[in-house]
């Protein structure tokens, strides 16, 4: 870095800000990935839960129908 001391201070500050911004963007991308992963896990859990409950209810209904016959 060359030039007047004030310019060197500004250049260092700017470089520091650019570095911090890149770090913060990387952290935000990481958080976004975690959010999407959590949403997908919850969707899978709900899907399994709904599927299992529905299947159990259908089996119970068929059994009741058999008893009624």
Number of helices: 1
Instruction: Tell me the Rg in angstroms.
Output: 29 Å
The share of residues in extended strands comes to under 5%
Give the % helix: over 70%
Instruction: Give me the strand/helix succession.
Output: H
Determine the structural class based on helices, strands and strand pairing: mainly alpha
So what's the overall shape?
rod-shaped
Distance between the termini: 92 Å
Residue runs with pLDDT of under 50 for 5 or more positions:
none
Specify the biggest β-sheet.
Answer: none
Mean pLDDT: 92
Tell me how many strands there are.
0
Question: Can you tag this structure with a few keywords?
Answer:
1 helix; mainly alpha; 69 residues; 0% strand
List the helices and strands and how they pair.
Layout: H1 5-68
Would you mind describing this structure in some detail?
The protein is mostly helical and about 70 residues long. Helices cover about 95% and strands about 0% of the residues. It is built from 1 helix and no strands. The radius of gyration is 29 Å and the shape is rod-shaped.
Give the structure's gist in a few sentences:
This protein has 69 residues and is mainly alpha-helical. The protein has one helix at residues 5-68. It is 93% helix and 0% strand.
């Amino acid at each position: 870095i060359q030039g007047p001391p004030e310019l060197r201070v500004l250049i260092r500050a700017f470089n520091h800000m650019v570095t911090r911004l890149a770090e913060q963007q990387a952290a935000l991308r990481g958080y976004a990935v975690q959010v999407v992963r959590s949403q997908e896990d919850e969707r899978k859990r709900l899907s399994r839960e709904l599927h299992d409950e529905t299947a159990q209810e259908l089996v119970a209904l068929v059994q009741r129908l058999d008893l009624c016959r």
